[in-house]
Amino acid sequence: MNQMEQRKMKNNVVLIGMPACGKSTIGVVLAKIMGKDFVDTDITIQHVEGRPLQQIIDENGNEYFKKVEEEILAGFSEENCIVATGGSAAYYDRAMEHLKENGVVVYLKVSLEGIESRLHNLSTRGVTLKPGQTIADLYEERIPYYEKHSDICIEAENMDIWETAEFIMNQLRCLQSENL
User: Fold this and answer.
1) Please, how many CA atoms are within 13 Å of residue 1, restricted to the half-sphere of its CB?
2) What span, in angstroms and rounded, lies between the C-alpha atoms of 135 and 139?
3) 46 and 34 in contact (C-beta within 8 Å)?
């Protein structure tokens, strides 16, 4: 199968970006209007582990959490889904390449100031921060990974949920028509 045929068959939309950029919220709306299932990989991790993300991090550390997250992403096999990934998903090249085999990766870009204004529950959210690391540090560290793995980048900061979902759909249509 050539690359163009493979691209046509992709039926998942994979959302990546910083915590609080809107992946889960926009993902639900996008799934509804596109008639697809919705999967939040953070919830999948919680289900597999039987505990909240923050508890996994607190009890087993960031490295354990990252190992679990990478394995779940690398083994993802659902089809016809909108997939909201955790903010750290883009760290895992193997997992991201696997997700791209059957999905278009959409980076929901929001400025650092926008993320900081939205992110209120840092101590319970399940964000993998290193000791002494700030959200600004994390933002700067992750941006290159999001840009590297995305097929589409959406400036999502100044659009509401429905506008963002519609914009994503339009971008997906453009991408599809380019690949015909």
Assistant:
1) 8
2) 6
3) no
Q: How many CA within 13 A on the CB side of residue 111?
A: 6
50: left (phi over 0), alpha (psi -120 to 50) or beta: left
Query: Are 68 and 43 within 8 A, CB to CB?
Result: no
Q: One-letter amino acid identity for 12?
A: N
How many whole angstroms separate alpha carbon 7 and alpha carbon 10? Answer: 5
Cβ distance 51 to 143 under 8 Å? no
The reported pTM is 0.91
For 55-114, the pLDDT digits (tens) are 999 999 989 999 999 999 999 999 999 999 999 999 999 999 999 999 999 999 999 999
- Look at the chain and count its residues: 180
Q: Are 175 and 16 in contact (CB under 8 A)?
A: no
Alpha-carbon distances, residue 166 vs 27, 69, 127 (angstroms): 11, 29, 28
Terminal C-alpha separation, the chain: 15
